[in-house]
Amino acid sequence: MQAFSFSSTPLDPEHCRAGLADAGAGGYASFEGWVRDHNEGRTVERLEYEAFEALAVKEGERIVAEAVARFGVKHAACVHRVGPLGIGELAVWVGVSSAHRGEAFAACRYIIDGVKHRVPIWKKEHYTDGDSGWVNCERCAAAGQTGPAPGGSGHQHEHGHDHPDPAPLFRHDYSRQTALPEVGPAGQARLAAASVLVIGAGGLGVPVLQYLAAAGVGRLTIVDGDRVEASNLHRQPLYGVADVGRTKAVAAAERLRELNRDVELRAVDSHATPENIDALVAGHDMVVECTDNFRAKFLVNDAVVRAQKPAVFASVHQYEGHLQAYRPLPHWPCMRCLWPAAPRDGLVGNCAEAGVLGPVPGALGAMQAVQALKRLLGLDAGETPALVMVDLLSLQTRRLEARRDAACDHERIGAAEPQGAAPLELSFATLAEAFESGLELVDIRETWERMHDPPGLQIPTHLPLSALVNGYVEFPTEGRYLIVCAHGVRSLSVTEQLRAQGLTEVYSLKGGLAALRS
Amino acid sequence: MNQIEIQYFAVLRERAGLSRETVQTAAATAADLYDELSRRHAFGLPRGMLRVAVNDEFADWSHPLTAGDRVVFIPPVAGG
């Protein structure tokens, strides 16, 4: 059947849905839009739909295709009425068949929201008082009505109907960075697949977060236990007056969500500690260190050396700053190589004690963001380790080549016992044994991977990784789980991420299902 | 006596009250030079906490000084 079509005759849902039949479909979800008898407080008698069909069919088909691709459903279709309709008549029908109900519901919602918002269809309402009027969404925009409520996912119009928030349908335009030959679509895909842990959402963290979110880095975790203070605003302009007193991590995540809906943001409203640092670092591709104290900087340094993850460090003092990148390469120095006598806080002054001009951390943070993107895009081949010193008064930059300190034992830092961390992986001989463990098994394989599972070796709970990664489904915040995939690689990554999110009793099935069957 | 150009950063710049100076010194090594200047400017920071660069390269504190060297004392920086 046609993915999107118009009909000038009454719709028959039974007939419409016949085209969605599929032996592999375990569920069907549909939406029906009906003609109702009132709008904006006026009684409606009947209405007429009119469409710019040539354009509307193309856009409608595009929306259905997007939904099929995005949610991995079997079939989807939408039919919209045109012409005169009476009260109670079926005006629009959307149907989706899918292996599982979650994707079917989500795709159905996506299609009807998209059709309402993007397809040029006009509705002429005839009121009981003899009056009539054309209604469509452009009218709402022209009237300059309220935008999306803060943090809300839609907006209510005075005339009494809901519109989907346009933001989820807004496609972020990265063309100005993909135009760079070193970036291109492949680089953009790398950024979208990347996860970055940003520790500290202050003067350095603010520009780091803004630029990484704007660039379309797929996942950002913001760690900061501080609250926004009035004295922060001069150098942390991500926050506003109304944010004073709020947790920085939460306020930052909220603002960044408004900036780019493509980015999955997580706010951790506590400081990095010896107890949580390893779990936080484990779930990410790289770390950007933006704190204002040596205790935290060395804590992060040790964790990235242990985890062998790249990191970018920066610090500022009044009008100048330091920038240093760490890469997990044998010859590469860490922060302790450079500063073997771990400095004590309070001796050399932080922003609160020494003062700082707002754009100084802004400039250093922007430099950190460049270094982070450079790493994620793989543009740092041939780079040599250095401490970069920037003086923003004299505009002098000094690059001092840094070397591994033979006395700085990275093996020892690496061996330091991560505190409070349970093993990430568990081994079981059979699936039955795994079920008996008392852990709830969660299959994160994609739907197509599960299709050939032999009977008796099926895992009821299914949260496909693609849906988790894209945020279509959320992992429960409590419970005891064993994450399962084909070979134990994806499940380990999900387990690390869930541990970093605070779930303590979550494990990965070592070797995946392949290890069980062999 | 050697003529040495010195540059200060961060807390050392604050305490010295200048960002650069040229000194005539009998100091034989970077360590000797720091100790001499630390007394003069009352830096109050132990040498072990700093790094020194001579002619734009990190150097050991035992690095011998020669006339015309450019010496930079680098305290760690924590602000963010």
CATH architecture of the largest domain in chain A: 3-Layer(aba) Sandwich
3D shape of chain B: globular
> What is the CATH third-level topology name of the largest domain in chain A?
Rossmann fold
CATH class of chain B: Alpha Beta
CATH superfamily of chain B: Beta-grasp domain
Write down the domain tally of chain B.
Answer: 1
Global outline of chain A: globular
Largest sheet of chain A: 8 strands, mixed
Helix content range of chain A? 25-40%
The number of E-state strands of chain B comes to 5
Regarding quaternary structure, how should these chains be classified?
Answer: heterodimer
By secondary-structure content and strand pairing, the structural class of chain A works out as: alpha/beta
Arrangement of strands in the largest sheet of chain A: 14-13-12-15-16-17-18-19
CATH homologous group name of the largest domain in chain A: NAD(P)-binding Rossmann-like Domain
Rg over alpha carbons of chain A = 27 Å
Content of β-strand of chain B: 25-35%
Low-confidence stretches of chain B: none
Greatest chain-chain interface?
Answer: A-B, 42 and 22 residues
How does CATH name the architecture of chain B?
Roll
Briefly summarize what is shown.
The complex is a heterodimer of chains A (518) and B (80). Chain A is an alpha/beta fold. In chain A, the strands form five sheets. Chain A has an eight-stranded mixed β-sheet with strand order 14-13-12-15-16-17-18-19, with helices on both faces. In chain A, strands 3, 4, 6, 8 and 9 form a five-stranded antiparallel β-sheet that branches.
